[in-house]
Amino acid sequence: MQLPNLQQIPVSAGLDVIFDAYQADxxxxxxGFLSHTEVEKINREVQPALDGLQLGKxxxxxxxxxxRHTKRLPVTPHSQTxxxxxxxxxxxxxxxxxxxxxxxxxxxxxxxxxxxxLSPGSKAQPLHRDQDLWPFWKYVPPSGPEACINFLxxxxxxxxxxxxxxxxxxxHLDPYQGAISTTETVPVEMNPGDALxxxxxxxxxxxxxxxxxLRRGLAMHIARxxxxxxxxxxxxxxRAIAETMSYRAQAMFGFRSTWPIDxxxxxxxxxxxxxxxxxxxxxxxxxxxxx
Length: 291
Ligand SMILES: O=C(O)CCC(=O)C(=O)O
Ligand SMILES: [Fe+2]
Prior knowledge:
CATH topology of the largest domain: Jelly Rolls
Strand order of the largest sheet: 1-2-8-5-10-4-3
Bound molecules: 2-oxoglutaric acid, fe (ii) ion
Helix content: 10-25%
Mean pLDDT: 93
Number of strands: 10
Number of helices: 9
CATH architecture of the largest domain: Sandwich
Structural class: alpha+beta
Shape: globular
Largest sheet: 7 strands, mixed
CATH class of the largest domain: Mainly Beta
């Protein structure tokens, strides 16, 4: 079977070109999404916390899926470079708006933003669609709305042998069917700083790390407003860190009622008796600059 080649598009090509590729194939590599300086700084900032983590998630029912030789670390409290860079990236927000925001009340927030370290010995992750996090989404047809999107940034080289994410291009257009075989997937090889932008409908999975080096990625996983997030960000990110963030970034983590704020009644969801939750918490009343 001939699999389509993945499109690799420089970040400078801009939103329309990248969005078209995502719509056609369900995924696209954005070349140079992060600068080398950002990659180097994020790697440095997260290293101490990663050193303190054990491999796998012993006792967690999802351990095989999450990886027994894998470390996953919520990045936000540890990396100012993440908070200043990818979290505030206008391309990320532009694409998210295009994907999620159509009706008043629509919006988006971070499902999880995590470092994924595949250590030597990591087995291939079961192939899946990220939208399966919310099991009822399988009843939404391929033409229906997107539950989530992912910007998976390479912080080390991604190669076929070190566990590069494998994707089954164009499966975002397929209705649910039997299991997809690895032979229908291709490895997404990337340089540090490149990002794989992909649909929650796309079949994919982390690859097997057959080397003696580390494969490190940063997944910035964005979900439609209204979907409960994997991480309870507003209960786990220290308030002192939230206070350093822009209004938009606070909203990404549930420190604000919704985002975008001017796209429907702000205080209807995730509020305190219709009062905007950030104001209720005493966060600054700053009006955001809407992108
Ligand atoms: O680590 C990877 O390459 C992919 C991880 C993934 O798809 C997931 O955890 O949902
Ligand atoms: Fe995934």
